[in-house]
């Protein structure tokens, strides 16, 4: 990435301003600061040279072409709600915001698809789909502000993934601007299609490093008409995790299955004035949304009571409030040097063991931990924090973090269930993937982006020289 | 592909026999003929130089390494039930059969996954999973004989995809032998995982052209406990297609939704002694398998009667018989010069229009057509045939075939919903994908297989020289 660290030449600025309107370009310090980071931990703060707001596909092509010609990196972003630093600026880059490309181009209820620009907010697509009894299923906690383009760049997960799958499962086709500014179309408008290599899946989750998604055709699902929500409190978090396996054994597929440990309940109570911790030490929030939701809730109640759970079926308002509380678990917090939310996934049978190990390692390192999990997917978000914010505390937290990653891998897990590698998780990727697999990905990166201008330094460890 | 067309040197044979056991290698004419083709149309019959049966990952690695050293193409195959010629031999190639690698390495009911060798037969995995109340959902019509490795190579679909997704959606991780004989592992054992580029999806459906799948971790789903099946007869096939949209509007998700037109019903009757054609002109076979299956069948009945359907709920035995009849629609037929089964997909709203167009174009060209469809996915299998098998008839059929492809694309469809490009559909790929997208795939092929020894001439149009 020899081009990073270079201030874009004045000619580039002049060319950009000529190619776009004046209000699509900024070097104002406030904008540079605002667009310097996403919500991931910042380990190496850099400001962009400029921020550019694309409004059309042609804008994106023009920006990418100009940047390529001048050897300036381009960091594309949607709402900047990513939490792995995938949209952090690199020195001297252009941040290319897609948030103004926010049109739903088509919503076809018979075909059960939508075509959207990348800046469409997840919740807005859902609102438009709901009119037709449809929904866009992937629902990252940030869904009220995050964009479909950003969701695609990170292959975002969410609560409803337990039943409906992740972003990749919802994406049928993409329009992508490549590193040379050309535009390609991948995939198909149909539900099924196997013509050629699966380029669509290759771009999904590639964090803007292989190309910039400027349009997407997504599959919609049926909006449920009957929803039953169980709040199940347990005496300890291990029993709650056992409840997850019990639901599996009962062959029930909840649409939402969230686990919250005691410290998480207390944190939510403190923030929201609720009294969850008073009801139990750990909470399993299970939602069923099929036409047989009532029957599923009945079977689930028996299964969870069998694990010692105190089950209450919540009315729709309270259920919505609980799910919303869970979604806002992160609150407005941005990860910092003294608080880091993790995102590992383990095979479901390892949940109990892993949670116990997390508690043990936090205690041993003298740092705090609270755990929430998309438990149906074995996807955990432990948040580690430093009680006393000094250098020793930060070192202890990082040691606990590293250990939590090692343990997840030891149990057959992954270092990122849904947040992506971005910048922050690069340091752990080689623990999960072999050097050969890493090199294969570097080769792919070099094939798609030979000059390394698309979001350099993200997603895969730094390029080595190709043989 | 300058290496094709060359007989493998005697040294290669000697080295193969030395690396494997004697009964893992054959040049017997009967074997060469048997392994020369899959079930796709044969337009250019070629025999392999030899057939090799791998029994271990190391066998595959040894064969690929030796073939690479001698510049001999390797065509990997499972049961050879593909219908696009993806496993047809190329001149002088080694056919590498994986059918002896048929061990289920692990089946973990708590994690809801299985690890399998590529030669495991789909039905055998399902039988093993059923013991635990689980199933491997993707069910190509060939599921009783086809292998998981072959299913992965073609990203096979099937009947249950309407609800459960295609092969890609079931594959979590892969072991792949690359063109240089090295072994890599992609993906994750967990349900979710976003570390690095999605190499797993890139290999799924790549027809053995990027690497050879020698192991897979797949996700299992819950075996349904209540199944309701409706046989719905309509006065014409267009009304049956309208029924598909009516079920969508009723927001019902059947696990199977198959459409059969009048000629298909007559063909089945003639083969199986059934009397389907006596019950109506077109059949919609709808199966529901959720806990609310009875209620879903009730709602579906009302919706389909609203479209003029004559609905009968079938008892489990008759339902199983009907689904089985549908699966065996192809019978033991192999596509030939005078009968070709197609595999296009269109957006669901285009189903009625497309079916009408197919009937019209067959009549105009003076050829026969019968249509079955995985209608829930908009995935149609029209079979064209020549009433009088002469040169003019074959030309007319090919003209109708070409037109059926053009029309599907015009309606926003794809040239292959689930069968793959293989060899037979290469001639149409450039109608669907731009030259730039094709070139991108050639570049990917060159990256993974620089010498072009892995299943050359399949999946993507012939390589042009890279710039």
SSE layout and pairing:
The structure is a homodimer of 467-residue chains.
Chain A: H1 10-19, E1 25-26, H2 29-34, E2 50-53, H3 57-70, E3 74-77, E4 94-97, E5 104-108, E6 113-116, H4 122-130, E7 134-135, H5 148-154, H6 161-164, H7 167-170, E8 171-177, E9 183-187, H8 199-203, E10 212-219, E11 221-222, E12 228-234, H9 237-249, E13 256-260, H10 262-272, E14 282-288, H11 293-305, E15 310-314, H12 316-327, E16 339-341, E17 344-345, H13 351-365, E18 368-374, E19 379-385, H14 391-410, H15 426-432, H16 435-448
Parallel strand pairs in A: 2-4, 3-4
Antiparallel strand pairs in A: 1-2, 5-6, 6-10, 7-11, 8-9, 8-10, 12-14, 12-15, 13-14, 13-18, 16-19, 17-19, 18-19
Helix pairs in contact in A: 1-3, 9-13, 13-14
Please, could you describe this protein's structure?
2 copies of one chain form a homodimer. Chain A has helices spanning 10-19, 29-34, 57-70, 122-130, 148-154, 161-164, 167-170, 199-203, 237-249, 262-272, 293-305, 316-327, 351-365, 391-410, 426-432, 435-448; strands at 25-26, 50-53, 74-77, 94-97, 104-108, 113-116, 134-135, 171-177, 183-187, 212-219, 221-222, 228-234, 256-260, 282-288, 310-314, 339-341, 344-345, 368-374, 379-385. With 467 residues, chain A is of the alpha+beta class. In chain A, the strands form 4 sheets. In chain A, strands 12, 13, 14, 15, 16, 17, 18 and 19 form an 8-stranded antiparallel beta sheet that branches. The first copy, chain A, has a 5-stranded antiparallel beta sheet with strand order 5-6-10-8-9. In chain A, helix 1 runs antiparallel to helix 3 and helix 9 runs antiparallel to helix 13. Chain A folds into 4 domains: 10-97, Uridine Diphospho-n-acetylenolpyruvylglucosamine Reductase, domain 2; 104-222, Uridine Diphospho-n-acetylenolpyruvylglucosamine Reductase, domain 3, CATH 3.30.465; 228-330, Alpha-Beta Plaits (2-Layer Sandwich); 339-426, Alpha-Beta Plaits. In chain A, strand 5 and strand 6 (113-116) form a beta hairpin. The first copy, chain A, starts with 9 loop residues before the first helix and ends in a 19-residue tail after the last helix. Chains A, B: Residues 44-223 form the FAD-binding PCMH-type domain. Chains A, B: Pfam families: FAD-oxidase_C (PF02913), FAD_binding_4 (PF01565). Chains A, B: This is FAD-binding protein.
